[in-house]
Amino acid sequence: MAGFLLRRLGVAIPTLLAVITLSFFMMHAAPGSPFASARKLPPEVERNMRARYGLDLPVGEQYLRYLGGAVRGDLGPSLKYPGKSVSKIIGQGLPTSLKLGVAALVCGTVLGVALGVAAALRRRREADHLATVAVLAGLGLPSFVTAPLLVLVFAAWLGWLPTAGLAGPESLILPVAVLTLPLLASVSRLTRAGMAEALRSNAVRTARAQGLSRTTVVLRYALPQATLPLVSILGPAAAGLLTGSLVVEQLFGLPGVGKAFVLSALQRDYTVVLGVVILYAALILVLNLLADLLYAALDPRVKLA
Amino acid sequence: MRAVLAVLAAAAITLAGCGGKPADGCPPGQRCLRAGNVSDPGSLDPAHSFVKQDQTVLNDLIVGLTTFDARAEPIPGMAESWTVSPDGLFWRFRLRQAVWSDGHPVTAEDFLFSLRRLVDPATGAGYAVLAYPIVNAEAVNQGKLPPTALGVGAPDPMTVEIRLRHPAPYLPAVLAHYGVVPVPAHVVRKWGDAWTEPQHYVSNGPFRLVSWRLGDRIVLEKNPRFYDAANVCLDRIEYFPTTDSISAERRVKRGELDLNSAFASNRIRYLTGRGRMGDYIRMHPWTDIHYLVFKMSDPAFADVRVRQALSMSIDRAFIARKLLGADQEPADAFVPPGLGAPPAAPDWAGLPLAERQARARELLAAAGYGPGRPLRFELKHPIIAAPVPTAIQADWRAIGVQVTLTRVDTAVFFSDLQLGDFQVGITDWIADYRDPTNFLNLMRSDQAASNYSGYADPGYDRMLGEAEASADPARRAAILQAAERRLLQAAPIAPVFMNPSHNLVSPRVTGWVDNLDDVHPKRWVCVEPQTAAR
Lengths: 305, 534
What we know:
The complex is a heterodimer of chains A (305) and B (534). Chain A has 305 residues and is mostly helical. Chain A contains twelve helices and no strands. Chain A has a domain at 99-267: Orthogonal Bundle (MetI-like fold), CATH 1.10.3720.10. With 534 residues, chain B is of the alpha+beta class. Chain B folds into three domains: 1-62 and 205-280 and 506-534, D-Maltodextrin-Binding Protein, domain 2; 63-189, Dipeptide-binding Protein, Domain 1 (Dipeptide-binding Protein, domain 1), CATH 3.90.76; 287-500, Roll (Dipeptide-binding Protein, domain 3). Chains A and B meet through helix 2, helix 4, helix 6, helix 10 and helix 11 of A and helix 1, helix 7, helix 13 and strand 16 of B.
């Protein structure tokens, strides 16, 4: 176990380094400048701005400086929001993204498993058809379609929920619903397949033969088997949801990390982009590791080697 | 199925729990304005401000020697009165008794500190150029003189003196500009760049900064220490970054916002539909000129006949009135009307399109282009410029010119423009203050920062210099008009159309006055008290 963790850490650090390095040089190779706007700065002023942020140094030196700062937890200042640090921008956006992400993760998993189980138990009947429709809708419709549709119905026509902005818990309902759909779709598909297989397994057949009730058989014997594959998709899905969704945050005007990320990329706010990339990469590494550990805990056949 | 229900119930509880405590919002009983501001400001430090979003919020926070009334005309601000020497070069401002929002008095020292900081190249201020009429400002900004050499002085703590290089009748408007207004010297000395953090921020205007959460909202509250606080109606303002304009439109319609400072031109038909938002729409002539830039060092555009042909063959009326159609106006001149400049369109402006295009073909033929050797080039434009470039492309096709359109990110576009990586580009300019020189100076040969064409005409430069030096308004206007004619005839640029200001303002909002600068200090605005918290 300890050996496994150590080895994974040994892989994680070079991976993170590679991600930082690639992003750093790609960002700096992108055309455009953080200081370009309709009103060009006088050359002396621009030179001073570049010097202030160390952008006048050779790229290699900028890279080393950045890396040095990042190791100490200093992600530098934002180039577009003078006086705001990257850590602060991420720190301000993260709670909102986390809130949305956790809610969507819980809803998507719980509802997805429920739908998947129901579909597997009632194959080719209403519940199954309903699940199939939900899956197709969830997987087929991108969030930039579902979000405006939901807003149109629940905010514009029915007037039940606010259209956008962060104002009270009710303003999170639609964004969470939009984020939940795709996750619900993939979770229910995996669960349905796993459940169908589990119901045919020897363990379940034995349990049934012993006269256990249907509920006990499903919940205690079939479900744990069926949901095992979920663990491996939930890791990356969680990382994606927790760091925020650009489309949802943009359409609903929510102050999350996803929105900050894309806005920064468009404005060439190099430091903010890099900061979010590092956060995202680190989250993926950690959550994948967690998924592996969880897998081993749940499935006795899996050995951490 | 009972298990499923239990799980569902658990999920519902989790979901409800995720909402947390209600977010801050307008307290009931307060007069609270919720305004869409399109995006977050870049900075609330005047010296680092640069865009309209900064302007909107800074106008509510900080008052300069002068400030704006509801029509955006300069009126006395921190200065209660001023005198100008007969030659227009020496201005003396008498300060009123006023304090910053922390109780610290506003003194002449604040103004000296702020103006020196503005032009100090170490500050990297975008609007330092607005201070250039002040003696030595340009040299200081270029690092040739120390900031203390700037032509400002304070004979006593309540008097500010400014010495100008040339008469600038528009100085009161410049001093009210959001990039030039003062910063609290005692706070900036203490906190440096971090002074703009809400917990440190100190203002001297009608409102003070309470909080700023990026992507969420900026909250301002009435500043009880403001000298005219008795006449400020609003208790609180919340500014939202409404990056999605359709969503902003719905929020205004539903009463979640009281106004949004933009709507897209192509929404005008929908918005004016019966029972929609006709009484919310505020459109007014503005100073936003959209124009084409020809890169003169490109062999294709070295010939004045080619540039003239391209400029005269554009169907500006179609672009402004049919294609855009939300009160846009065709632009033949570079200086928008309303800035006190006599009209100065080029000689072809009055001709019908067919005649202009026939003349354009002749000019192109004379320059050596024709069906056998068509003129080919690339028109580069930012994404937001669509669909105008397509219409221009069609107009030019009609005179036998083959144009490829390239659309790029806004950040890439301006960087390319500045690096000279383009042949023809389309960009715009909005007046910083109401004076023709704010536009005409862009094309001076020594203004590499804004003269993307690389237009260098010593005659034009001399005329602008003469106009600047002149203290006689009539003579000044006449020279500027002649200079603009000369510019348009040489056609390093081709004005295309003027954008009006586009605001969606709820009928609940009072005191909103549409004006040429699209500047609306909230000091003059009011709404009914909030009935329920939102």
